[in-house]
Helix-turn-helix domain-containing protein
Amino acid sequence: MPLDTGGLSEVETSAADGPTLQSGADVGQALKAMREARGLTLDQLAEATRVRASYLEALEEMQLEKLPSRPFVVGYIRAYAQALGADADEAVHRFKAEEPVLDEPLPEPVGVRDERDPRLAAIVAGAVVIIGAIVAWNVVQRIMTETAPAPPTASETVAQKALANTTAGPVSLGAPLPAPVESTTPPPYVTPGLDKAVNAEGQPLVPPQAAQPAPEMNLAGTFTPKGQIYGAPAAQGAVILQALKPAFLVIKGADGSVYFARQLAEGEAYRAANLAGLTVDVSEPEAFQVFSGGQSRGVLPQPLTPVAKLVAPAPTPAPPPAAAPKPAAPATASAQPAPAAAKPQAPAAKPAPKPPQ
């Protein structure tokens, strides 16, 4: 295929007299001298050869490190010479003579080094240790089981005496023991208002149950410390809750925040501070005895009780004694006697009735 000369005429690409491919110190200088003799710029030559102007400039200066590989450089020299109307083979021959190919050994191919992951050895060693420990433990357990002494047995004499004391016949057993009380079982839930609801006939939905008598409890009349006392100091609280058995006690504030929450042992107590809005929250009211001012107020009335209701009311003052009546003043001599009472007058006599005529 003919080389595109970019519109250069025969007059521009040929010169009878001027520099040749043998001019200059190297083929690059010769090509540059021929270009300048024809009055061409690098941009014009780059457009004609389709090679970058920077590559043509590096070729003229023989700066091969700025150019691509050697096959591309040979192609650039050939196109440069053809664009100038010179012998392309001669230009390539001079270039190869000035820049011969050195017979350097090819570098060895670079591969991946055969390295082992150091973590793999640690993992294998750990697995071997674990397996060895398991095997050793099984062996030791087997040895201990085989060498364990046999359980002691009674001698024949003792066994015969025990058999001789046994009598044939039915065996009497005692009364069965009651089932243990499950203290953690919550009380049965009762729907509010269900006991007051009635059916279509006017009968209550829930039959009334006989009231169960409250269990008798021997409560102390005054507070006696039997364990640790939590809560406020003695000068800052008058209400004391003492546990009659192990139970959980929660004290909440007016905003619902928890001031105290603890499982109290039997005999331990909590002294409530003189704060407004405190509430006692328990699951077993009968497990706590209330003391106000050191005097017993009985057990808690309900699971959720305000502390203010547990304070003993202040004694009402006795009314003042009535004033004694003043004695009457004694009569004096100058006092006038009281007027005599008027005697009643006799009623007037009625006239006699007239006889009939």
Observations:
- The beta strands are 229-231, 239-243, 247-252, 258-264, 269-272, 279-282, 288-292, 295-299, 304-306.
- The longest helix spans residues 118-147.
- Helices lie at 10-13, 27-37, 42-49, 53-60, 70-83, 88-98, 118-147, 156-165.
